[in-house]
């Protein structure tokens, strides 16, 4: 059944038949003539509120969906869609407006408004289903046969023009008006095709309020002359202009006034002032009386043969036909003029913040809002796989897609549309016979509001300081065009509309100077600074007059000011762009490779000594000096050489923890071995004295215990360090601002100095004991070598402390690595070089008698 075949039917029957078109399909069997009606689907509203009169709302609450096949033979599958919090805000604005109207005792007294809000999914077909659903109700119980008109007053919708075309044509047979809040297609001005279509947003042929400062800034006219007439109009116009130009980059080069009684001498003086300001090529002219002021002034202006001036006209003369003659074009060609108009909803922000899953536990749209804002589902009933959340989360400012109420446009249009319906219905219900809009000034019947859109056509009210009404085409108050004076085909001046202004964005769809030879004039006191330079205002002159000075290091210019680069960036040589800072650390460059080679060579030498000792382990020099302790010491020294490698390369979480702990534990192990050897030397020579038997207390087990216990103290300190405040990689940008130094923060300075102090304590104790045993008899006094090794060790690390503190950047790691290598080489050569010399070059001295100094002369 075609929709328009319902037109002759009564209103209620037509609507009911539409319900069957939407919700039912007729199927027949070849074996039975009986037709069975089966409910195939329903279209649920997003929000419903009961009232004496119902307003429908259609909003694109979802978008980007793939529409299913709707052939009325099966229930369509679920669609893939995405929730739109911005459109949800529009729907909430409609609900807020209805609630405000119902609470207002002066608007629709003793009557209430209700609403049914549906989702169009930003798709014409779904918008059609929403329109039919709002007409009929959710099911057949919601759309009973009725004798009077439907309580549905109007529909607020739709956002897209394509959806509005479909919805408007569905509503047209029933004369139900539709007020769009976002459809701007100029096609809706055709009253034959869309007789019941209204909108509170202007069509594409109009834009909103123009302001002088926006136009001047748009063309970079920063050095402007102002000429006005001697009257209140000119005075207030200039005052408003100066007030609007405050805080902008536009300056007024001069202000002059044309006398009310025109004086040629005064006019010539004004023109001379303009000549003295050669850079000011734009004149803003505010005059009210075209013939009395403008015409004689322009005659004298033309006689002076002044050209190249860009005139900015006031609305009083921008379309004055007296200036269309061709002789004016060389002097006034390119003149531009402009015209004017947005909203505030006081309760909208708090109203939106009140919407949450706890307040609407059964509303899937609110649950989808939460999923879109927070990435979680507030209810187990949701089909989403997102994680659960409480539903008590606060709506934050970053949710601007939903909570942006600072300057509402579409939401404000929705707000005005609801109030337009309410005021129209109020006028209908309060209409007195003899003052109505119909024939003989009659009123519509309050119980049959079918033709009530005539009241909507005549509505006129003020809301938030803005006047709302509709013209004969259903459009709201039109906005101003931007007019440009261009040469016509006959040489005359034509007033060409070159753009629109909506109060926020200047839109010039047609190139202002593309149709004639003139170029956009330049009117500046000082030319814009080149990239890498900033403005320096000249003392005693307007801010538009300035010098250009280069930016400092680390800053780039936006041709106005110099701004610091982000923390990880630095300015290039020309100060034009920010480039990533150079990242420095102890890498495998010349210094890093040198330290690596030294470390590997030291480890190899230690292993070589280990091999020599192991091969000659049965000789006297190895046995006398306690081979087990020597092997432990060589093993520890190998680790000391290798731990310096951890300081080379980019710092990471693990390398930072390993650096100091590995170094401190290996050195503690090494010094513990040397300490044990020192104690053994002292005990061995003390045992030769009568009554002394100390060696029984320093056997192999006791020696191992000493090494283990001394090392474990350092291990405990390091473990506490890692647990309490472990080292971590950090980016140092304070030492040198042009570089980023990757280094390891020690985490706890106390722990760092504790591990160094413990190693120093061990070394000092070992040095003292070895020094006491330096004069013991024998040709090979181990205590002397231990004394020298500890002396070198302590000297290296005492020199390390000030060098470590004062070293810049990546050299800090190099200093510490060097100290490790230097002390390791000191221990290796002092302790083992003399022994290797005897083992390899003087084997005849590798006897017990020689070592003890008892060989025969």
UniProtKB/TrEMBL annotation:
Residues 591-855 form the G-protein coupled receptors family 3 profile domain. Belongs to the G-protein coupled receptor 3 family. This is Olfactory receptor C family, v3. It comes from Amphilophus citrinellus (Midas cichlid). Keywords: Cell membrane, G-protein coupled receptor, Glycoprotein, Membrane, Receptor, Signal, Transducer, Transmembrane, Transmembrane helix. GO terms for cellular component: plasma membrane. InterPro entries: ANF_lig-bd_rcpt (IPR001828), GPCR_3 (IPR000337), GPCR_3_9-Cys_dom (IPR011500), GPCR_3_9-Cys_sf (IPR038550), GPCR_3_C (IPR017978), GPCR_3_Ca_sens_rcpt-rel (IPR000068), GPCR_3_CS (IPR017979), GPCR_3_vmron_rcpt_2 (IPR004073). GO terms for molecular function: G protein-coupled receptor activity. Its main location: membrane. Residues 1-19 form the signal peptide. Coiled coil: none annotated. It is a multi-pass membrane protein. It is found in: Cell membrane. Pfam families: 7tm_3 (PF00003), ANF_receptor (PF01094), NCD3G (PF07562). PROSITE patterns: G_PROTEIN_RECEP_F3_3 (PS00981), G_PROTEIN_RECEP_F3_4 (PS50259). The keyword Flavoprotein does not apply. The chain crosses the membrane at residues 591-615, 627-649, 661-685, 705-723, 750-773, 785-805, 817-840.
